[in-house]
Amino acid sequence: MSLLEVDTLSIEVHGAPVLRNVSLTINAAEIGGVVGESGAGKSMLGKAILGVLPRDARITHGAIRLDGQDLLSLSARHRRKLQSRTTAFIPQDPLTALNPCRTIGAQLAEVLPPTPRAHRLAEVIRWLDAVRIPSAAKVAKSFPHELSGGMRQRALIAAAFASHPRLVIADEPTTALDATVQKDVLRLIRELQQDTGVGLMFVTHDLCVVAKICQSVTVMHGGRIIEQAPCDQIITAPRHAYTRALLAATPRHDETGRGLEPIPPALLEQLITEAGTGNG
């Protein structure tokens, strides 16, 4: 059985469709990428799975199943209880995600099982060590503004995996990091995912990131799924013109002499037309 199944999910905001019959599957111990430009619907999909849609958003059709349980059939209280035990989130901006008035250690301790204080502190330090934060005991007593962006993101990654989830949703967790730190954070996420066997949905606009970390890829545009395939196929033999255009617009370290090609306006107009008519 799949860990996460999104089945023909449609969402409207003020009557305007923002997700259109979106379906995807992520298995346990798999990293599934969801990729597309800004406005493609990636983050809205993640919010729907987490149960944190904006108040003006309304699910009009579909199902979201976690370990076979339809989350949309549960009451808000039961869904929160279930997902607090099974689902974790790595956000895009660690500075705004962390409470500036509490230490890193206190915030990480919140996701740990209730245990004596000394044991919790030891677990906090163990998880900070696990994400390769130097001087973990000192960092545990630090406030978010005292850390670099990379260290803050590592602390949030530690918090996500320390809760022992079944599913982790990472919403562009490397966007605010420089290239060197990004590479290390991607490697860290991959290693923790392999060690724990969780399923992970990795939301990004960057196909280079997808190629480094994901086994399967869902390409989105305008709230629709354009293409789904194993990562190797998406990168080497994409079927849809939009996926090929995204690849052409993505910088590649192995093709330094190649200029980037913008996505053709005619293709974007075609996609908008197809979305309006329900085709494609």
Account of the 3D structure:
With 280 residues, this protein is an alpha/beta fold. The chain has one domain: P-loop containing nucleotide triphosphate hydrolases (Rossmann fold, 3-Layer(aba) Sandwich), CATH 3.40.50. The protein has twelve helices and ten strands. It has helices spanning 42-50, 76-86, 94-97, 104-109, 117-130, 136-140, 149-162, 179-196, 207-213, 231-236, 241-248, 265-277; strands at 4-13, 16-26, 31-35, 57-66, 69-70, 87-90, 167-171, 199-204, 216-221, 224-230. The strands form two sheets. Strands 6-7-8-3-9-10 form a six-stranded mixed beta sheet, with helices on both faces. A hairpin with a 2-residue loop joins strand 4 and strand 5 (69-70). The longest helix has 18 residues, at 179-196. It is globular. The two termini are 28 Å apart. The relative contact order is 0.16. The mean pLDDT is 90.
